[in-house]
Design goal:
46% helix, 410 residues, 13 strands, alpha/beta, single chain, 7-stranded mixed sheet, 17 helices, two-stranded parallel sheet
Length: 410
């Protein structure tokens, strides 16, 4: 008998299982609207032109080597990443109370932050501190905080299925009733999976309650620039909370807005009360990193760092990001127009009211099953679709498939 003989088979990760099923499907009109990655109008991955340019620069730079990076990562990457999140003129940065931890993607940033909070937030060994995640949320949020040792993971109201929009009243009520010092994971922009974000006025209401109730803010910022095409607009909520005096964490991912999915480039931005506190916080995070991945890889961080720290490359990158965001916005308009033209039952305004890579269509599980089995259009069981999977060549077929599923399946 193997010592691993009693290990149960873990269920597959849903989005990767969906992609595997899609690949095995031989149907000529099959469409993959599941995996969260950008695709061109030819449904192909896109290496950003600015990334190609910087990669060539790195290859030709004879001064670079493969020595270890510092435990907390490439310094110029960390500082540039925090500036992108908080803004070049951030008072917190000028006051030297902002620091960063280079991480393995946004997930790594979440995990380092979660591990630190479990050990050191509001005292030591905080396994009983409630951690609130939106209902629904990105599935990894629950797993990351659970595996970090938190025992009390709670949902907060977010999606109103009836109106296909934000349940602001429910969200605010949950904030008012959460125990003081609870941790709230907030999506900075382009909420995954719903694509529904609070307005600036709604963010102000959220901040007021969180400040008054001493709740901790942990932003997940995976789509800055990708939602609206503007880095500043997509970071508005983060910057507002910082301006209100919050100490907070921001988990940043450069997978989407740089197209660096397999380079795993992330950063945990820490905003502290003062520089002395920041130094102590980062010293503990250094210990966490040391026993987790020891120190991070350099290639992706160098690509991002060189781009963000050069005005010409930075401007070119913003143009590349806007290209991606504009294509997503166009697909939203086209899909809504086609569904209305078909007379598809229900309201479809939410398609264009939502923002970012994903849209919560409102399709129920049976309708999703019909889409996959009968129409070979692959999407998550929740009804979430990746708008980047839509192209000018398949959008008519997808719209017709949605129409058929809604009219035939209740």
């Amino acid at each position: 008998m193997s010592v691993f003989g009693d290990v149960p088979q873990a269920p597959p990760v849903a989005v990767f299982k969906l992609t595997a099923d899609f690949r095995e499907d031989a149907h000529p009109q099959k469409v993959n609207l599941g995996v969260g990655a950008y695709r061109t109008d030819d449904c192909q991955p896109w290496v950003l032109p600015v990334v190609k340019k910087v990669e060539r620069m790195i290859v030709e730079d004879g001064s670079l080597n493969h020595e270890y990076l510092p435990i907390l990562g490439l310094p110029e990457f960390r500082s540039a990443s925090s500036k992108v999140a908080l803004g070049e003129d951030s008072a917190a940065i000028k006051e030297n109370r902002v620091g960063g931890v280079q991480s393995l993607g946004g997930t790594g940033a979440l995990r380092v932050g979660a591990e630190y909070l479990r050990r050191w937030y509001n005292g030591t060994n905080n396994t009983a501190t409630p951690v609130y995640v939106s209902a629904p949320t990105w599935e990894n949020h629950n797993g990351v905080f659970t595996d970090a040792g938190f025992k009390d993971i709670r949902p907060y109201h977010y999606w109103d299925a009836a109106k296909r929009g934000l349940d602001l009243a429910g969200l605010l009520d949950d904030l008012e009733n959460a125990p003081e010092h609870s941790i709230f994971v907030l999506h900075a922009c382009a909420h995954n999976p719903t694509g529904t974000d609070p307005t600036q006025e709604e963010w102000k209401q959220i901040a007021e309650i969180m400040k008054r109730r001493n709740l901790f803010v942990f932003f997940d910022s995976a789509y800055q620039g990708f939602a609206s095409g503007s880095l500043d607009k997509d970071a508005w909520a983060i910057r507002f909370f910082v301006s209100e005096g919050f100490e907070l964490f921001v988990a940043q991912s450069f997978s989407k807005n740089f197209g660096l999915y397999n380079e795993r480039v992330g950063n945990l931005t820490v905003v502290s009360q003062d520089s002395e506190t920041l130094t102590r916080v980062l010293s503990q995070m250094e210990k966490i990193v040391r026993t987790t991945w020891s120190n991070p890889p350099s290639q992706g961080a160098r690509i991002v760092s060189k781009t963000l720290n050069c005005p010409e490359l930075f401007a070119e990158w913003k143009g590349n990001v806007k290209t991606m965001a504009d294509r997503v916005l166009l697909m939203r308009d086209e899909l809504k127009t086609k569904l209305l033209a078909l007379g598809t039952p229900g309201t479809w305004d939410h398609i264009t009211q939502q923002i970012g890579m994903f849209s919560f269509t409102g399709l129920n599980p049976k309708q999703v099953e019909y889409m996959i089995k009968e129409r070979h259009v692959y999407l998550m069981a929740s009804g979430r679709i990746n708008m980047c999977g839509l192209t000018t060549k398949n959008i008519d077929y997808v719209a017709q498939s949605i129409h058929e599923s809604v009219t035939k399946v209740q």
